[in-house]
């Protein structure tokens, strides 16, 4: 089972990095999101997937799943959710202001008077 | 167990939440922010006294014993940096009362600064790798908002780059946390150190160490710094000063902490790599600073180059070098904030960021000119100022180890930085004024007052380096001898 998850993590990493390397801001945001999910899967696979029952005491079970990585993943998902939301809003506002979602076409430093922008 | 350890993190957090509700009342916001930062500095001093008399202070959150729960650790190194961060942010806040437009102030500038401070202080104080990640994110989230606050075109473009690069490095951070947890089964820094010392630092663990090196290098601007000069130049001076003084230093702190406490076994791999990256950073950052004509970009490259210099001390890692690194890190926080604030006044005064369009600022504001010159000399390390003792110790440490290339790189850096800063001084302050003074700008003297405490601190730290040295010595002792830290955290 861990091998399957490892392959999925690899594929997700590849997809995420491919998306980040494109020029469109929306694709980049999606890329970062996929990349973080790949890392969450990695975190889960690192503590072995199914080593016992749910970590609840007093049920007569001997072996438990390690709950710590799940807590870490939960924290990381929340943080990632916040950042993705902010990133999307920023991309939208940048589109309104700069009239493009193409990272390469955003006005470069040399083409404008800098220092006047304050 | 000492509940005071959490104070430097709690005070800004509560202040930030409180300030969100006082959004419309600017005067009140300003006063509360300033008082809160002062309280924070007082808490840091109080902690420092406790650490000096009673050794390392720890706090197990919710009473969970160390390897299982999250632990906060206040050793001398962390407390010194918390104190420096509080003082620097107090001055930046004083500056922003007049140096930032009301529009930004009304759009949650003060709450964001306090959230960022909570993240910064948390990163200094935490003793848990995943908690370090959370504190990093708290700090970065607020910095994303601060950097785009105001919404000019340039800010939007730079913020997109800045967020992307930081999200990528955070992702790698979580990945390396996953690998470390898989390999050792713990995330407590002290426990990690113990486990790795027991089982030996094998190849895979060294690979994870290299991954963490990449993560922290992106945050600190060590070698992977291509995003830094643009992003730090985009927001107004008070915000760039906070960023230049605090954010990169947090990355550097994490590097020093992790590579002296946990991954200190395979120095031939990791520390050599850090040394090479440091030398490359110094060369690229130094020449970058010399080649630029935009004030903010020159200062951005200056930040990068000093990070390279501190990492050289980590590469050498003997007693003198680490003591120098602690001293230099504190000095660098203060002096970089001062430079950014003074440059902000200079830009407002002359109405341009390009040094070849400036000139004659010395006529209008002589005090600003001489303060800028003094700050430049402090960066380079001219004796009576605070740059000197740290630089001397780092160079001395590298010569003791026979690392002549590293020492040479450090000296080369001084020359390049001196040239880049004196260039600002000559082109900006000498000569005839090119622009008529802008009528709406009439507060340089009050703004100068906000940077005066930093100036004073630089002089005092340089003159009274001798009485300060025992504190640096204590901080360096713990970096040299990880067992002190481990015992303080795990035995209680």
Question: Would you kindly provide a written description of the structure presented here, covering whatever features stand out?
Answer:
The complex is a heterodimer of chains A (118) and B (492). Chain A has 118 residues and is mainly alpha-helical. Chain A has one domain (2-50, 66-106): Orthogonal Bundle (Helix Hairpins). Helix content of chain A is 61%, strand content 0%. Mean pLDDT of chain A is 84; it is low at 110-118. Chain B has a two-stranded antiparallel sheet. Chain B has helices at 7-21, 26-54, 76-99, 102-106, 109-125, 129-148, 153-184, 189-199, 203-220, 228-233, 237-261, 270-291, 295-316, 319-350, 361-364, 366-380, 387-400, 404-429, 444-463, 465-480, 482-490; strands at 57-60, 71-74. In chain B, helix 12 (270-291) packs antiparallel against helix 13 (295-316), helix 13 (295-316) runs parallel beside helix 17 and helix 14 packs antiparallel against helix 16 (366-380). Chain B contains 21 helices and 2 strands. The radius of gyration of chain B is 21 Å and the shape is globular. The relative contact order of chain B is 0.11. With 492 residues, chain B is mainly α. Classes of the chains: A mainly alpha (118), B mainly alpha (492). At the A-B interface, helix 2 and helix 3 of A face helix 6 and helix 7 of B. Chain A: It comes from Saccharibacillus alkalitolerans. Chain A: Belongs to the CPA3 antiporters (TC 2.A.63) subunit C family. Chain A: Its main location: membrane. Chain A: It is found in: Cell membrane. Chain A: InterPro entries: CPA3_antiporter_subunitC, NUOK/Mnh_C1-like.
Task: Please outline what is shown here.
Chain A has three helices and no strands. Chain A is mainly alpha-helical and 118 residues long.
CATH class of chain A: Mainly Alpha
Helix/strand structural class of chain A: mainly alpha
Structural class estimated from helices and strands of chain B: mainly alpha
Helix run count of chain B: 21
Distance, first to last CA of chain A: 56 Å
Residues in β-strands, percent of chain A:
under 5%
Counted beta strands of chain A: 0
- What general outline of chain B do the C-alpha atoms trace? globular
Query: What's the CATH topology name of chain A?
Result: Helix Hairpins
Radius of gyration of chain A: 21 Å
> What is the name of the CATH architecture of chain A?
Orthogonal Bundle
Order of helices and strands of chain B: HHEEHHHHHHHHHHHHHHHHHHH
